[in-house]
Amino acid sequence: MKVLMVASFGGHWVQLQRLSALLDAEDRVYVSTADRQNAGATYYLDDFSVHELWRGVIQLPKAFKMVRECHPDLIISTGAAPGLLVLFAGFLLRRKTLWVDSIANCRRLSLSGRVARLFASEVLTQWPELARGRVRYLGRLL
Fold it and tell me: Which of 63, 87, 61 minimizes the C-alpha distance to 76?
């Protein structure tokens, strides 16, 4: 199984690395917002927030290119907006997608997580009280 793993640098990246260690995947490809040499990512996106959607829109062709080149069986993101962008490209290219909301969001699903639940194959929260609708709690992941 080939997994494309996407996260912004910082806490989201740390959570993605921890999640990656739990996966039984033959091939993992990483996308980050940090410099490739420092993050160990194969692909790079500029960081942006969902409040700056124009910055995401101009990177959408790059996200499509990553998904097409990688041919992942699954795309996983722990956030934030750049991860959402790659998940959206994967959705449009009919890939399985998984959004894992940050463990830091204990009172409310993140804004990106709320958007992801509109199209992601699966949306997971790490807090049982936030699981409702399409958002599921499968236990603590991190």
Answer: 87
